[in-house]
Amino acid sequence: MPRALSPLIAAAGLVGGYAVARWTKKRPLGGVVLAVAGGVAAREWQQVAGGKAAAGLTAAYVGAFAGSHPLAKKMGAWPAVFSVAGAMAGTAYAVTHKAD
Asked: In angstroms, rounded to a whole number, what is the distance separating the alpha carbons of residues 10 and 82?
């Protein structure tokens, strides 16, 4: 898998998880999307940058998900989700790019 995909997978997991939960009205289904994308990205982070980086990025992914909730109260749901997804993608790119 090209390294450029892990930031996109992480961002897509955050955006896709929210979209699925919102449009299906089934939050657990959105959680499945979030978890699957996070697992795929974490596996690549492990392979590319090692265990510590993967653990840190996984924690950032979970933190982005959690942080989107209070942020949504200030700026709206979609802007919050896109903001944390962008921040997560940038962070994942920065960490995995260093491993080159």
From this structure: 12
